[in-house]
């Protein structure tokens, strides 16, 4: 799961160097290195689930890591920005296997609140990685070249191939193997689309993913080149915000079994929207340039709160789809990623030298997510249950 995050976040410090190397006039264009990766990441998810439902989780994940490694090699050899963007798409195609299959493996082995607890621990890895990824990227740059950032990704892929190949057994029960056929896939997709809980929580998750992607896409400009000019301290600021998310997922894993997924995620989302409105107010009060400490405090609070919603929404979406976990995880991952990448692009591309686009994006997408959850639960928010 951490491959996804490290492939985005450790490249952020290299944006200015890549801009200079390829003569990119508009700094906002560098955000494409994030969003084209997410497009490849989203599109490939629709494939991994059905294939893993037929052939098993283990071999498909190993193949996906090989594709990811090929994308790293192509990026290291990129003679142009267009080539680099194409390599990022291929990286995304490979990294998608980890996103789909890690959640499918969890669903293979766990259910209900126990699944939510395990999912939170996995999401904690996904969210803690950004604490160290920019520092790794900065360290690679210090060695002399932006190419070394992709070397670090390639080394990670190699370690994972060895580790996963040696330690992870096949988790798909033989009785749940499904034929790889269009009618079978279509049946699974229809079931997913007709399941109100799955579609509703996946949509809310996609909107919240858009918040995260909008922030990540513009973080380098906000903290470094466009607003606060932190320079070498950029990884520290980025890591502090990511740390709030990691702490929240750890808390979520400990309390979700007692409070339930719905109660915890609905409360987290409602509080997130409230703090997002505060974030907008702070931005307006300081003409879009609040003091760094104040901005970091409000932003970290929002990242903390969003982490009570996202892992639980993921678990709630998959909960009723256990027999088609691979295909369901694949489709829902595709849907949430593409929706999140699109919304994130709108936020990131709106960067105007102020913090206002991030605050407005959080408030708008968070409010819309809350409405979607209310529709999903037929207006009965904060309602627990035997499994949720």
Could you name the key traits of this structure?
single chain, 388 residues, mainly alpha, Growth Hormone, Chain: A, 15 helices, 79% helix, MFS, MFS_trans_sf
Uncertain segments: none
Number of domains: 1
Biggest sheet details:
none
Average pLDDT reading? 88
Estimated share of beta-strand residues: under 5%
- Helix-strand pattern, N to C? HHHHHHHHHHHHHHH
The DSSP helix count reads 15
Structural class: mainly alpha
CATH fold-level name: Growth Hormone, Chain: A
Shape-level CATH architecture: Up-down Bundle
CATH class: Mainly Alpha
Please provide the count of β strands: 0
* Global Rg: 20 Å
* CATH homology-level superfamily: MFS general substrate transporter like domains
Helix content: over 70%
Shape: globular
Distance between the termini: 23 Å
Topology diagram in text:
Elements (H helix, E strand, L loop, with lengths): L1 H8 L5 H8 L9 H24 L1 H20 L4 H29 L2 H31 L4 H21 L14 H13 L1 H30 L8 H26 L1 H25 L6 H15 L3 H9 L6 H25 L6 H21 L12
Helix pairs in contact: 1-5, 1-6, 3-4, 3-5, 3-14, 4-5, 4-7, 5-6, 5-14, 6-7, 6-10, 6-13, 8-14, 9-13, 9-14, 9-15, 10-11, 10-12, 11-12, 11-13, 11-15, 14-15
């Amino acid at each position: 799961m951490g491959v996804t995050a490290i492939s985005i976040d450790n490249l952020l410090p290299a944006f200015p160097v890549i801009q200079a190397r390829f003569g990119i006039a508009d700094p906002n264009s560098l955000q494409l290195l994030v969003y084209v990766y997410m497009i490849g990441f989203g599109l490939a998810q629709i494939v991994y689930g059905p294939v893993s439902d037929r052939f098993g989780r283990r071999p498909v994940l190993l193949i996906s890591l090989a594709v990811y490694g090929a994308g790293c090699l192509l990026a290291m050899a990129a003679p142009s920005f267009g080539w680099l963007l194409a390599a990022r798409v291929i990286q995304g195609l490979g990294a998608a296997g980890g996103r789909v299959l890690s959640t499918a493996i969890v669903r293979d082995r766990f259910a209900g609140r126990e699944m939510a607890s395990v999912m939170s621990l996995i999401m904690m890895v996904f969210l803690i990685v950004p604490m160290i990824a920019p520092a790794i990227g900065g360290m690679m740059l210090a060695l002399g070249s932006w190419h070394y950032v992709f070397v670090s990704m390639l080394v990670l892929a190699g370690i994972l191939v060895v580790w996963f190949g040696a330690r992870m057994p096949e988790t798909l029960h033989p009785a749940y193997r499904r034929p790889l056929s269009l009618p079978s896939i279509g049946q699974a997709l229809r079931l997913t689309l007709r399941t109100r809980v799955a579609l509703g929580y996946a949509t809310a998750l996609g909107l919240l993913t858009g918040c995260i992607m909008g922030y990540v896409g513009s973080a380098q400009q906000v903290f470094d080149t466009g607003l606060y000019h932190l320079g070498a301290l950029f990884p520290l600021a980025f890591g502090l915000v990511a740390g709030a998310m990691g702490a929240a997922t750890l808390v979520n894993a400990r309390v979700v079994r007692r409070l339930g997924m719905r109660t915890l995620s609905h409360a987290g989302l409602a509080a997130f929207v409230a703090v997002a409105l505060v974030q907008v107010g702070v931005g307006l009060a300081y003409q879009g340039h609040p003091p760094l400490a104040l901005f970091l405090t409000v932003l970290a609070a929002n990242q903390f709160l969003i982490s009570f919603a996202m892992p639980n929404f993921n678990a709630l979406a998959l909960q009723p789809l256990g027999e088609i976990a691979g295909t369901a995880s694949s489709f829902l991952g595709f849907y949430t990623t593409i929706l999140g990448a699109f919304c994130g692009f709108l936020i990131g591309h709106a960067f105007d030298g102020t913090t206002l686009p991030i605050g407005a994006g959080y408030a708008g997408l968070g409010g819309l997510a809350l409405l979607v959850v209310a529709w999903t639960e037929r207006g009965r928010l904060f309602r627990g249950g035997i499994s949720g």
